[in-house]
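Changelog-adjacent note: as of this version, every example in the card shows the full chain rather than a window. The one below runs 213 residues end to end.
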Amino acid sequence: MATPNPIDLAYPFAGRWLVQNSPADRVPSHGTTLFATAYAIDFVPVGDNGRTAPITIGSLVRPEPPERFPGFGRPILAPISGTVIAVHDAEIDHPAYRGVPSIGYAVTQRRRAADGWLALAGNHVMIERDGVVVALCHLQRASTEVRAGQHVRAGDVLGRCGNSGNSTEPHVHVQAITGSRVEHATAVPLTFGASLPHNGDVIVATASRHRGR
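Full-length structure tokens:
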């Protein structure tokens, strides 16, 4: 099957965000094609110093509350204009896992994958545009500001950055697919302003509206 044409997006946030798991560096970006994630990308909110929450001795030995991280609760914006086709925001924001706790969390990832895409995505919003669906995942519980069937424009607030689903610290996961049924969809390549950032890049974005309709 031929690879679908890329879809160009706006960054779904404002402020400073660190790029992780970028398809600019490898495909599949998350090490698997499961759930059409081949071209998915992650953005971790960071402070003015370009870093996430400081690592302490406590961070290395026990889980941390997500509120400790600089981007927990930051607005997540629509990266494209389109129609909201799915909203889910009932999952808890679980603790963040770094150091030794991250090892135990990684061991249970296979179980989460077996439970299906919802267990991995956590709270999320899906937007459809011209037959392509863009999913934004790991949102904060009860933070969504849109509903299924609603038309949104790029830059509209969808919800807030959380730590739900398969997430070791607050961040937003973005992927594009060829339909709403993730288990049967094909991954769609994506770009941001016609380019793709690399792992380790820090994006400094301002909220904007564009891409029409």
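Structural remarks: The radius of gyration is 16 Å.
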